[in-house]
Amino acid sequence: MTETKNRSVWKNFIHLIRQIKLPILLIGIAFLLNCGKAEIELLIPEKIADLTGFEFTGTGSSAVKTAVSICIMIFVLAAVEFVGVMAATYITYIAKARINRDFQAVAARKVFYLTTEEAEARDPKEFISRITTDTGFVSDFLIDLLVMEIPRLYFLVSTLIKVSRMGNGMLLLGFVLVVPVIVLGSFWSGYVTYRSQTRLQNAIARLTARLAEKVEHAEIIKAYNRTEDEIADGEIFIDEMRAAQKKTTLATAFNQLVANVLFVVPTLIIMTAGALQLLAGDISTPQFVAYFGLGATYQKYIAEHLTLWVLAKKAQGATLRISGILMLKEDRGGERQTEGSGDLAFENISFSIGGKTILSDVSFTVKNGSKFAIVGGSGAGKSTILNLIEQFYRPEQGRITLGGVDIRDFEIGSYRSLFSYLPQNAPGFDGTVRDFLCYGSGTLHSDEELRELLREVDMTESVEAMGGLDFEVGPGASKLSGGQRQRLAVARMLLTGAGTVLADEATSALDFEGSRRIASLIDKNAAGKTRIIVAHDLSTVQDADMILVLNKGRVDGMGTHDRLKETCPAYRRLLTAGEEEKA
Fold this sequence. Notes:
The chain is α/β, with parallel strands linked by helices.
């Protein structure tokens, strides 16, 4: 079971690396600098040992001159090592930042391409932790593995060869005994780290999602006097994270204790083995000095495997979580490019979410260039039809065709470019009024053109009062009212120039007169285009070429306004309810 899991982790890790472009040049330079550092650290103990073999007979003796030369060489080597370490550290940080950026870009891109079903099956806010934190764990491990591990192994192997050439088996045994002590401590520490970090990251993700949701809807919380209740509820998640942080802190303290033990114990083993052989006369003083110098660095390099193992355990959980995102279904279609347009047809479409049936055996055809209205009570499935047209969802049964071609065969980008989409509530993003209007248009528009559009949707005075086109609308366009967002969304739709308009109750936040004016504006500017309109106010769609009446996900009637008044009781009830609402 564990072996299979580990294989899966490594497979996913390699898959992640293939998604990015490694900074090979930077990695190569840092790698060579670390190899040079390891070579110098192998050489310095031998040079220091050479100093102990001299007998100094006078200040001007050849022995003194040689010793001075050796000291100068040691100083130069130490200086070169210092500069190399500084350069390697700087280059490594740059390489790691680039790798982390690429990992974040891959994860973020995947999140944006997720199907609506995949995104709704999870809390999208938890993706923030995956993109910002988990990618860092993977980057840390990858850069340590590529830049530092081989130089470490080179030093360790070279040290064992040098000690073996001293001809004393006890010295080599001392070095060998160090390995299991450090490896055992590293594995133990890594296991503790993996568990604590996994628990902490999950707690942070849940708290982030919870806070984001509540802050976004703070007005509702205040209006219903639920502030203290929500604070108490939030404290549960805070306490969960605090408990996870406590265990992570304990794990960090444990790691520090292990690191100290893994420094002291190996040092004692190496010192004891060397001292015993020196006292027994089995090795010379220069050999002992070289042995001890190599041993000090040797145990440091092995102890650094503790860091590598801890990074590996952090990356293990992060890799599985990021890979879990990358394996989700993407919102992509076929390869066929759309050319022009045609009739849009639903053929026996059925669709459900979470086991709840939304549409059942729905069939209709929208003639190219016609005005097609969809009406029905709340929950009838009206918005779902637009979502299926946009391919936010895929039907479980039946198919949707455009010009006789299944819409799943079209390349998703070229297909969606056929539509101007006006969703309910007209959501927006942080930015200016100009950004709101031009979002998705793909074309630069002059201020005069934008002001003309504002005049068309009765927003000139409002925008001028705010401060003009450069007014910041706030996160989610929160500084705008619902009616202002809807008017600006209509103006945005007019800028796109797409051949088909999809309007989902685009005037629901407006009063009767404003609703009629905006509906007329859409008809005026979209004349000759296909218009598929989900309408709450039936007076805005009575002139439609075809009206589809939905009731609990089924087609209750279809025809013109006059025909439905005569033949469809459900349509008459909607008309009556609308008239009573206006009264």
